[in-house]
Each structure stands twice: as structure tokens, then as C-alpha cells.
Amino acid sequence: MTAPTPGPISAIVLAGSRPGPDPLLTGSGVSTKALLPVGGRPMLVHVIAALRAAPEVGAIRVLAQNSAELAREPMLAAVPDLHFADSGQGISASLAAALPEGDAPVLVTTADNVLLTPAMIAEFLAGAAGSDVAVAMVERRVLLARYPESRRTWLKFRRGWWSGANLFRLRGQRVLPLLDFWGRIERDRKKGLKIVAAFGPWLLAGALLRLFTIQGGVARAGRRFGLAARVVPMSDAEACIDADKPSDVTLIERILARRG
Q: Where is the MobA-like NTP transferase domain (predicted)?
């Protein structure tokens, strides 16, 4: 008997604002990063367009502190199966509240993932199939071969330095213990060694001494929570270029112009 074909995966877009001033918004006249124009369109519009064009993706939910403001964006008015909801305190708590019931997987990305494409989504979901938690990452040589001027936060492991690509696959309620743990350490999300150390001394020692690859490290971290966790290496350097700094926006707009 042939196994049933999985249906479209639902998606969550994290579009909230972090505490404190954002250098990207200074003098822009825009109240929230998700609506900042990049390449002629608000960041969020680029991301929603990529998700909606991906045949693997079904319903899309946008989470933000003031989701009604984002819902009023005219460029999103005609997008089918697009929903908005107010987020809670912190990324992990917001995600936990938005997860589907049971073990249904969900795709998670961010509003500043402006260069996202349907091809990236397809590559990531194919690599993430069967996992409880999957994280998209780009190896440093892949990025620097095309964009040596780009500056990222790197996690250094055996056989590679890696940067996150703002794509995650979470398997429903199974990941709640991991999200609860992440809620206690997410303030250090840009400090690679602090994140690794939070998973225990063995993982930290292994990272410092390069005893295992990032795939092995993430698998070990997942087992702490009874989860099958996986890194999905992305082949496109642009997958890890998000809009964090003014220099990022300059590079992104150059890439968008080249894409036409």
C-alpha cells in the first residue's frame, strides 16, 4: 500500500520588534522593521511572496506585537490563506502558542529573511523530512565564495563554520520542552559559545576542541530533549543573508536588483 502524500506545511513568520532602538529604522519613518522598504517593497512582503509561491507551503500566519498594523499593508491584501496574530513575550513563547496540535510540522521563518526563495524552501524541507527539529544553515566557504563582504555570526565546529539561515521546521507539540529551554537563553542568540554552553559542558568542550561536526552537535543537543534534530546545509549563499544591519540592506538590494 502506498503511503499518503503529505499535505502542505503551514508556515509561521516571526515579524515582531525586539526591545530597544533598531538602527535600520532610524530616520525611516517606519514604525516596525517588517514594514521597512527594501528593494521597493516592505521586507515582510518579500517573505510572504516567497512562501506563497512555494507549492509545499499552505496556510501562513504572521506573528507580531501589533499584527493589525501589518495586516493593513496593501501589498498583502490579496494574499490567500494569510493570517495575522499578536505575539507573546519573546520568540519561544510566541512560537509555543502558535504551534499546531499534535505532531503536525510547521515551517518557521522571519520577516527580515528578504532573500528567501521557493527553491530555498524546497531544498530545506526536503532535507528536514523526518526530523522533529531542523535548522537551515550555510557553511562559511559557501557564503564567502560569493559574498566575501558579508559579515555573519559563525558557529565553529569540526569541518566547518556555520551561520543560521532563518528557516526552521518544528514538529508540533513535541518541541515544547525545547522552546521552553530556548526561552531562557534566547537573549544570547548572537553569542555562539553561550548558546552551545547552555546545552551542557560536554557539548561546549566538543565545540571548543572541534570534536564533532555541527550536524553531530545538533543531533546531541536534540537527544537531550528526546528529539531528532538536524542541520540542513543550504547550497545557496543568499540563504543566510538577512537584514540585520544597514550594510546587509545595501547588499540585499544589490542582489534583488540583479534578480530583477
A: 30-141
